[in-house]
Amino acid sequence: MLDFIFYFISRQITQQEFTDMAWQGIVSSPDVAKENKHQIVETEHLMKVLLEQKNGLARRIFSKVGVDNTRLLEATDKFIQRQPKVIYYSFISFRAY
């Protein structure tokens, strides 16, 4: 059993394992994290990207079970906004000679 778990933990994912829209969501998630000043890409970043795909599978699945995608996207945005942000300060000193 441990060999089976180790296989899935240690292997590298490839684009061929996903639909084009799902892969686009995966590679766009870091942009959402960066825009919100987050150091780590979390599931909420992926969720936001997938919910923003108007014809994506995630929206269709949520609609099928009666979830309002607009409200879910708003709730996801609010959750992301409440997360701690990383702020970098750059100090440059200038000296007159």
Describe the structure.
This protein is 59% helix and 0% strand. The protein has helices at residues 2-10, 20-35, 43-52, 57-64, 69-82. The protein is globular.
Short description:
With 97 residues, this protein is mainly alpha-helical.
H and E order: HHHHH
Low-confidence stretches: none
| Shape descriptor | globular
Q: Work out the strand percent.
A: under 5%
List the SSEs and their pairings:
Blueprint: H1 2-10, H2 20-35, H3 43-52, H4 57-64, H5 69-82
Helix pairs in contact: 2-3, 3-5
What keyword list fits this structure?
97 residues, mainly alpha, 59% helix, 0% strand
